[in-house]
């Protein structure tokens, strides 16, 4: 544990420059900011949140793939994220049954890592979006409408990403991925009782239920914050989780400070918020693989700015966000000690 904390603290200052990408994150950020500004100009700021989430998380799917594989990954991510928004909206008002739903969805999203790295990423994003829309303030948009707007944001991001290639070099849009094992085959290979992904799914389900219960019991503003943070923090391994908890807490605190300075310190005009959202998306995507703590700064700033568009102040809720982040860290670390790995047999 002490080693993980030390590694995390060192990691907050170490930037893996070879993992940084600029062009695609910049494009994703500009598209997200423009879509947000269009919603504001059209007098529909409530649409900005799901539309921006769809565009933003489609951009998260960028892992440096060739364009023929990249746009397919973006579309699949959009599908998973929209499912999270739909389920979050449908289950936000079902009382105690929500705990069963949270457990089932968290288990499925955690076990999605058995599919492969892409499945792990999409499971994470789906669970984060589910947590946000299950606990976000209610609007006059229904769950289905919200999910469709998320899809729209993702599809727009995909179209703009591939448009130059589609016009100039359409053949490059063909996939170059080698064949992979069937989905069920990959899942079945991870059903042993001590499998890492199975354990992770179970621990994640317990942690998300605990986070949801704590959010409901405290009745703090932003009920989504604790479950969302738990979803972002939890990793299949104990050391990885501990490291990410430290980075997440430091990044969140810095993001709250940055949001307070930018949003409360600058002109509060809605178009300024659109620019802040674009900047936050850019930072989160550029540093997603290069420095997790810095990515969280961008993520936190973006989320707070999006909810500010819905009329939620920053300064008045900052203490709750900080307390919720710390609570989520405790839940995540405790859950990581459940169902530990068996010690390896001696050779």
Description:
The chain has one domain (2-167, 182-336). The protein has 14 helices and no strands. It has 347 residues and is mostly helical. The longest helix has 28 residues, at 238-265. The chain starts with a helix and ends in an 11-residue tail after the last helix. Helix content is 71%, strand content 0%. Helix 2 (23-41) packs across helix 7, helix 10 (225-233) crosses helix 14 (318-336) and helix 11 packs antiparallel against helix 14 (318-336).
Give a topology summary.
Elements: H1 2-11, H2 23-41, H3 48-60, H4 67-91, H5 97-111, H6 117-135, H7 143-168, H8 183-188, H9 196-218, H10 225-233, H11 238-265, H12 270-286, H13 292-309, H14 318-336
Helix pairs in contact: 1-11, 2-3, 2-7, 2-12, 3-4, 3-7, 4-6, 4-7, 5-6, 5-9, 6-10, 9-10, 9-14, 10-14, 11-13, 11-14, 12-13
Structural domain count: 1
Note the total helix count. Answer: 14
C-alpha-based Rg, rounded: 19 Å
Largest sheet: none
Q: Please identify the structural class as seen in this structure.
A: mainly alpha
The residue fraction in helices comes out at over 70%
Give the helices and strands as they follow along the chain: HHHHHHHHHHHHHH
Shape: globular
Question: What do the pLDDT scores average to?
Answer: 83
Could you tell me how far the N terminus lies from the C terminus, measured between alpha carbons in angstroms? 26 Å
The overall strand count is 0
Strand coverage percent? under 5%
Low-confidence stretches: 342-347
